[in-house]
Amino acid sequence: MSISSTVRLCGVVVALLAGVALGQFKPTTYRPEARAVFGQCKAQADGTLGRSYQCPGLNASIAFLELPATEPEEKILDVMRGGIAASVQGELETNPTSLTLAGSERTALAMTIRAPKGGKAQAVGHVTVAKADGGFWSYLCLADASRRPTIKDCQRVLEFFAAHGVPEPIDLRARKPLEKPLLGTRELVVPEGCSFTAPRIELGRIQCASSFFTWSLLPPEVDLTKWRSENTAMLAKQLQQQVASQGAVLKESQVDCRVMGQPERCFQLSAPVGKARFRALHGVTRVDRQGFQLVCVQSDTSEALPPVCNDLLELVSAVAPDAGTPDASAK
């Protein structure tokens, strides 16, 4: 997996996990074969990637992830684990396992969410992925740990997802790519010779020859400090495998930065690669209630961040001092 595709994978999963904040519960029309399983559930959009279902004693989601077929299922699940850990209230425990769904054995993660500091189990469930034309389906279900019948109901939900897909008459694969690279309402500049991909409103990427910039929307109520830490660890784990193939070791540090003009602390990942230097700067911030995650990546000899990042990520040492600026901290 290339560095670019690694960051893309993280971005797609972030968009999936952030999507629930963009949807609202509405009256639901289920397909006839789904009514026995989902008849008491409320549905909402997980952004444009998937659908989420709030049922008595459980929550479930199905999403279509537009990823290359060469992505290992274990790696997708590992990235999802990191994103889920950053999203949930409490502590996430996971164990690799397998599930037999729709007659096929599938790689999965068993999940337990506990109260902080190893407290009582609050929810249990599974997440799994299934390869399909043009990407992967992801199926997730978490049940109230104190209600044994709902744990069995989770198995029914996952079985339905695997056998029948979306329980509503909705095609999650249908999409209309954005014509312009937008971060929220701001249109970004695509440098000459570069290209942009923005398949969904929740995420996008501008790719140049030796650098690229990705962005993702985050849930409004997410703990940004926890999210930044979890996702940097996830990104570092994946990127280390890339630079190690060239005999380099990834160095991780925290630096003062500005993210979309806001003073923050960013994670910087760097390593010498040949005569150049690889560097990834990862930052998160919140504007009003909306959270944002930005990643700027370059492989060159420049100390400055590349133009592709649109000055949305800045190292404090590279910008003029601002009197009265508060200490950088994630909100």
Detail the topology: elements first, then pairings.
Blueprint (H helix, E strand, L loop, with lengths): L2 H16 L16 H4 L3 E5 L3 E6 L2 E8 L7 H15 L3 E11 L2 E11 L6 E12 L2 E10 L3 H17 L17 E2 L2 E2 L7 E6 L2 E5 L3 E8 L5 H21 L6 E9 L2 E12 L2 E12 L2 E11 L12 E3 L16
Antiparallel strand pairs: 1-2, 2-3, 3-7, 4-5, 5-6, 6-7, 8-9, 10-11, 11-12, 12-16, 13-14, 13-17, 14-15, 15-16
Helix pairs in contact: 1-3, 1-5, 3-5
**What composes the largest sheet?**
8 strands, antiparallel
Number of helices, where a helix is a run of at least 4 consecutive DSSP H or I residues: 5
CATH class of the largest domain: Alpha Beta
Please name the CATH architecture of the largest domain: 3-Layer(aba) Sandwich
* CATH topology grouping of the largest domain: Protein Transport Mog1p, Chain A
Task: Give the N-terminus to C-terminus distance in angstroms.
Answer: 33 Å
- Average pLDDT level: 83
Alpha-beta content class: alpha+beta
Low-confidence spans: 1-9, 11-24
Topology as a string of helices (H) and strands (E): HHEEEHEEEEHEEEEEHEEEEE
Strand arrangement within the widest β-sheet reads 10-11-12-16-15-14-13-17
> What global shape is seen?
globular
Number of domains: 2
Our estimate of the beta-strand percent is 35-45%
- The total beta strand count reads 17
**What's the gyration radius in Å?**
20 Å
